[in-house]
Amino acid sequence: MAVGNEWINGYLEAILDAGVKLREQRGAAAVQLPPLLPAPEDAASAVATAATYSPTRYFVEEVVSRFDDRDLHKTWTKVVAMRNSQERNNRLENLCWRIWNVARRKKQVEWEFSRQLSRRRLEQELGSREAAADLSELSEGEKDGKPDTHPPPAAAAAEAAADDGGGGDHQQQQQQPPPHQLSRFARINSDPRIVSDEEEEVTTDRNLYIVLISIHGLVRGENMELGRDSDTGGQVKYVVELARALAATPGVHRVDLLTRQISCPDVDWTYGEPVEMLTVPAADADDEDGGGGSSGGAYIVRLPCGPRDKYLPKESLWPHIPEFVDRALAHVTNVARALGEQLSPPPPSDGAGAAAQAVWPYVIHGHYADAAEVAALLASALNVPMVMTGHSLGRNKLEQLLKLGRMPRAEIQGTYKIARRIEAEETGLDAADMVVTSTKQEIEEQWGLYDGFDLKVERKLRVRRRRGVSCLGRYMPRMVVIPPGMDFSYVDTQDLAADGAGGAGDAADLQLLINPNKAKKPLPPIWSEVLRFFTNPHKPMILALSRPDPKKNVTTLLKAYGESRHLRELANLTLILGNRDDIEEMSGGAATVLTAVLKLIDRYDLYGQVAYPKHHKQTDVPHIYRLAAKTKGVFINPALVEPFGLTIIEAAAYGLPVVATKNGGPVDILKVLSNGLLVDPHDAAAITAALLSLLADKSRWSECRRSGLRNIHRFSWPHHCRLYLSHVAASCDHPAPHQLLRVPPSPSSSSAASAAAGGGGAAASSEPLSDSLRDLSLRISVDAASPDLSAGDSAAAILDALRRRRSTDRPAASSAARAIGFAPGRRQSLLVVAIDCYGDDGKPNVEQLKKVVELAMSAGDGDDAGGRGYVLSTGMTIPEAVDALRACGADPAGFDALICSSGAEICYPWKGEQLAADEEYAGHVAFRWPGDHVRSAVPRLGKADGAQEADLAVDAAACSVHCHAYAAKDASKVKKVDWIRQALRMRGFRCNLVYTRACTRLNVVPLSASRPRALRYLSIQWGIDLSKVAVLVGEKGDTDRERLLPGLHRTVILPGMVAAGSEELLRDEDGFTTEDVVAMDSPNIVTLADGQDIAAAAADLLKAI
């Protein structure tokens, strides 16, 4: 205890001394403690703050984290006893109290985190056990005697095509094997799968269209500003290189990388360009004239969302996600139709007006949480497979921040929008066919924290699918391990050959550096910067390259080296630990590591044996690897935990054997490369033994070098893409073309011809395209080796195809549309009534609904009334909606469509009295619908503690094929939407839940069904631009109301139209808020004021569409 108090006394004295210096410098009257953690709201200021070393912050953190209340109290007692009139003692007493309060707050945060984590893990365990119990019967079959090592052909093909590091099961329906082959099955193999060089390509004869999405940061093809801010990092480089590599893969025709368009004076003008070409289309590259006009290749497509003149951090982009989705939907639809026109035009026998089969995306791949949500919504609307990559995960970040104990959960949420990010990741898991990870550790330790993924349940589901048995409505996405690709084009194979020869070349290069009497040939400057540290530079080099971070465990490496006489005599040690000018000016953690390194070098007297240069450039890194290889050295990564291990792959590319930590990604990497040894990073003796084993045994060193070079291609981009596409083919369900959404038939050729004769044809041909393709100025960012490429010709060809497609899909002119008369699919705009008019008892408020319907009809009347359609969107069933309209005196046949049961059904009243639901839409929303399997689970999970069975019971009259309805007697007796959804996810059920009719009914509908998604379904089917859609909503409503507000459409909020809403049952207070979902200051959202002439105002607003 006494020793502890001496440390506290020293720290407090240091804080006071630092405060005196600050006061002298700033002229302040008192010491002010800086914040323990810089606020990251402004990324630039956060970086600047972190770069400034603060001794006060360092010592406060040491006192708070290393000592308990008794130490602090004892120090305070001592200070009080010695108190006198001196200002220093008074300040010391006050300082004790302040730090004590900080320590108490840290403990309180840690306790709250521990309590929440325990409760959450208990809920996850209960959900996992329940799901496992339901699935246990067939899983027991794995324990049968000796499983057959030769599974039936279908199962074997699937296993060969899709096994990976812990993932789910592919969605393709397989042929049932014969009964006699169902008796025994091989155990599921969870090892990472590597595609052999001889494997047959599954996509070489295809013209695939792939969509990648990465929203945040500054994305461009050349001169990437990596490290400019926290949003522009390795992910930007990864997605750009992935787009290029996929476009170069046989069978892939076009790759679009969708990102946000930024026209801001603070960033380069290139980020405001709508389209940037990344690679030359193959057809154009082969065209000697340079003007093939192909639409293939890789492109960065920038879509506006949110304020165009502001560069927003990723935490501020969440309210603008729906707008990005709508613009992406328009872009992908346009490109799909244009590609269909070019790649698969209709045969002449179909006639001149026949439409081509659209080339829909083969897969939509979202990167990071924001893009994962975009990809989920986009894939749901288009009925195409969806893949996601997390890159960095919100739950993992939340746990790390809470463990630090510096910020309570509410502050973390306000700063990082962490709850919104986690929900986006959960949404991605709901919709994903496949999740790409870098390592098995990411699957088990990071994705395992999520409600939507349980490794044990997923494996049981995989067994059942492989056996052709029902999964009881449960689903878990497949997790696949696909390491990031790397570009090895910069590796000089001649140098590798020379290094491998071992002798004259190596010795000559080193001799030129260390012998001043000989003329030196130009060699990398970094070589001399490193070798100047060594007394004997001829010895093999042990190379460590990392940030000066305690987690990188460099000090243990130094101890292992310093304590081994044999290792010191055999090899030199090179430590590349970032860049520095003055250690005292570095951040606390980095300064601590470097100070410890210097002390250890001095303790073991390692001068002349350890190199630790102060500066190096990124371009120097390849030369550093080459130098280590020329000395017959070894690369070591002794990190405590290494999520992936990119430096290990880089070292292997230069022929360096490696010693790496056994914790994390290096396990998978060395399993593939077989070029080194794994060690316990805490065991200095094991590190020493591994290094000596490689350095002293030249035959082992040579074998590891050869193995690394032989297998390094498995981490190349071509191999990454081949593995990626094989996993997509095995894991994703690709609907047949007839199952995809279809563009409605255009007007008859005679009507179109007459319209064109009247001058309408010119109007149609000049109709503007979406913002992403208007004025398509392709900025080519390809190598100068292709100077003959004509971007103008390619752009002209794309625009021409799009305009031809649009001219056949849309009416020639508004006058032609009016002449045709009423016909859905000919509408130019839509007016959607989505106001939830219910009374406190949950029954439709006929009086208010009548006002709304009359207002909508009167506002929609105008010169273009024939081109405007009407849609009712409600939580009521189809019969209830029809009865409510008739009670208002409105004719249901006046509406083009009724979206009912919270988006579970669409019907068309104009078709007749039957009012049957749209079967095609029913097939569309059936995706992952658990059906009757979830029906009994919802009441059990949805009732609050102490509630009776009747408080949430099945409402049979309101149920339909794709909607389970439950009557809720008392809102206080049921749980909120987010809680029930979380519980269902933990059990493998994927659904949307909506409280409607003033909290008196809970609708459980399929994952792809919702009122906003139904509206987008109609926009695609009828070819209506979402910017030509207006949605009328109330000030409150059902729990899905907030999802109706944002997007590209115009939203009009009418006051005083809703008496009772259901939004109180949406989410808990500690979750995210409506402001994280909707940008209420968007120009597309208009709130009419009380007392305003609503009819006139609404009519004026509708003229804009």
Give an account of the 3D structure.
- The strands form 4 sheets. The protein has a 9-stranded mixed beta sheet, with helices on both faces. The chain has a 7-stranded mixed beta sheet with strand order 19-18-17-16-24-25-26, with helices on both faces.
- Strand 12 (634-637), helix 23 and strand 13 (658-661) form a beta-alpha-beta unit.
- By secondary structure, it is of the alpha/beta class.
- It has 4 domains: 2-112, no CATH class; 208-347 and 354-433, Glycogen Phosphorylase B (Rossmann fold), CATH 3.40.50.2000; 514-715, Glycogen Phosphorylase B (Rossmann fold); 829-1103, Rossmann fold.
- Helix fraction, binned, reads 40-55%
In total, how many domains does the architecture comprise? Answer: 4
- Strand count: 26
How many helical elements?
Answer: 39
For the termini, the CA-CA separation is 75 Å
Radius of gyration: 33 Å
Quote the CATH topology of the largest domain.
Rossmann fold
Net shape: globular
Mean pLDDT across all residues, rounded?
77
Q: Segments where pLDDT lies below 50 for 5+ residues?
A: 18-55, 138-202, 737-792, 802-822
Summarize the biggest pleated sheet.
9 strands, mixed
